[in-house]
Amino acid sequence: MPFSWAVLICRVRRGRAWCWWAALLLPTMMLLGVGLVLATSPANQALFMLGNAWSRALPDVFWSALTLLGTAAGAFALFGLLLRVRPQYFAAGLLAALPGSLYSYGLKRIMDLPRPAAALTSGQFHQVGEVLRHHAFPSGHALTAFAFASIVLWLPPRQRVPIALAIALAAAVAVSRVAVGAHWPADLFAGAAGGWLAAAIGVAWSEHWRFWECRRGVMTMAAILAGMGAYLCYQDLGYPLAVDFQYALATLAFIGSVAALLPSRHGQPTLPAPSSPQQK
User: What span, in angstroms and rounded, lies between the C-alpha atoms of 141 and 146?
Assistant: First the structure.
């Protein structure tokens, strides 16, 4: 196993529920704890200013495109390319949306912390795209990015390279929120905590409700993916520099949707093999 958490996941599949709770709560509490401590520290603003300044070494269009991957539609569009071969990934992402939303919107309203644009003057930092001022903690974009990366870790085949790439991309998306001036570093840690939590719940629910194993379930997910593609075509996400990338994500969503419904050599959409009793 490439990661220690994968060992815990395998034990959960053998019926050791305490391992699932440990794998669920420990990273969540650690990341959220770091975010809470940082949010009350002067280091939060210092790190923001440093990261925001360093990010200017790369063009604004790069950070704008990266931050679009932290939107739900953008993340699902990218993940949708796996719908044909890994439908449980997409199903777990859909099911993770509810706990992720409850975590994000709940904490945003409980904490009600100002964003950089509300705490600093416009000349103090570099800002890209839509100006946001309220509900900083946690970062919803970081939550979404780390939720999808965590799904890659939680579910088979758990290979080193895909997991490393998924985590690296999630981290880059999170950093983009500092680069565009939308979030403090503390918000990113809290978002990552919510992403891990939401992904674990989404994966557990996808093991219980296995709609992704039947043709109707795959067709429904393909329709949802196509709807997200249409949303990306018409919705203004607040980053005009990356509008071409937004259209590219929409195209990927349509491609993933169509590919999931293409017949296999046997004339039916490609579906995963049933899980063995040990995996259930």
Answer: 9
